[in-house]
Amino acid sequence: MNMEYFFRAVQDPNFFMPSWMKISVTVGLIVVMLLSLFIKNKERAIKIGLCLSLCQQFILYSWYIGTGYHLATEGLPLFHCRICMLGLAFAYFAKKEKLVNYFAILGLICGSMACIVVDLDHFVFPHWTNFSYVVGHYLLVFNAFMLVRERSKIQVKDIIIITLIMNLFILVADLSLKANYGFLMKLPSSLSFVPLTGVSVGVFISLLMILVLAIFNKVLPYNKLLLEDEEEYIRA
């Protein structure tokens, strides 16, 4: 394979992703989740998965920097999936259990959505961004799915605080760079029927995220309360 072609930075005007390819990505998502259920050494698998995710992110940002392709508006780690990929690795290795639990739930949701509603850069296959998109989200779902099954339940107030801080940071970047990271300035086409524009989109997405995360935090099984929450419960 011609590596220069694989890492090219000029979009293909005739780009088209057939339905069978989109379905294949979704089927692959299901396979990844099923395979994770049969892994015995979970701790080792999580560490390997997180390290592979970091390598994928490093190569991706190296490509953006090296080519200059939409670097400011698309090449920064400010999409929610990218934040989860980096956040999960940092939180896990730094033993920040609350953040691990938060990013595991968010990563599972965002990663799964990205594999169901596939939105690739307009480069005809094979291209690094196609490969990176699919592999990156598979790794995110794998890591998140492994961690969410070992998670501790977190409080709704923590979900609210983390979500608002994260989205405020993204929104400031969007306004400064005239970008649309996290779809906080313009809704995706699937939600185009919602009559919102500008900062109001960021408010809507933030509230929607808090609601969905709170529901998943309530519904998904968990092993224990966080240590600090358990201490508060005992004192009460």
From TrEMBL:
Native organism: Peptostreptococcus anaerobius 653-L
Keyword flag Acyltransferase: no
Signal sequence extent: none
Protein name: TIGR02206 family protein
InterPro entries cross-referenced by the UniProt entry: CHP02206_TP0381 (IPR011737)
Alphabetical UniProt keywords: Membrane, Transmembrane, Transmembrane helix
Statement: the UniProt record of this protein carries the keyword Transmembrane helix: yes
Top-level taxon: Bacteria
Chain ranges passing through the membrane: 20-39, 46-64, 76-94, 101-125, 131-148, 160-181, 193-216
